[in-house]
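testing teh design pipeline on a random one, pls ignore if ur not involved
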């Protein structure tokens, strides 16, 4: 079975809301919401892939040093196995533009549970919600 490595970012704004994006028509799992990011190119680190993907998909500039690893997902789909590290990021430059996504929105941590997401993203949601509630409790 093919192993696919995809890096994802939880972009968290000043109000602790998280950016999610909607997969465009014509792509696998079209219409589902996900954390922005994408496939690693050969020889590319997850951080560099996120810097590139966030620029290509949303016209946002992120420094690799502003990406903090949080958790990862390991999920088997019918025809591939997905390994997806999730990074948090609280600093970026630019305004979200819909370049390679259908929609984008900032949601609160509890609202993440209401978003229809690919199966691999579901455990990431719980981990992110837990991490954000731990920060809020301090």
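output:
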């Amino acid at each position: 079975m093919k192993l696919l490595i995809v890096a994802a970012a939880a972009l968290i704004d000043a109000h602790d809301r998280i950016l999610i994006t909607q997969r465009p028509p014509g792509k696998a799992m079209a219409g589902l919401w996900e954390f922005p990011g994408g496939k690693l190119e050969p020889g590319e680190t997850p951080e560099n892939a996120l810097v590139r993907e966030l620029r290509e998909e949303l016209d946002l500039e992120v420094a690799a040093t502003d990406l903090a690893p949080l958790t990862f997902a390991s999920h088997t789909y019918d025809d591939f196995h997905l390994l997806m590290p999730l990074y948090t990021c609280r600093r970026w430059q630019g305004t979200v533009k819909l370049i390679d996504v259908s929609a984008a929105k900032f949601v609160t941590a509890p609202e993440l549970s209401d978003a229809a997401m690919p199966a691999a993203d579901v455990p990431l949601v719980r981990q992110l919600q837990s991490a954000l509630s731990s920060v809020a409790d301090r």
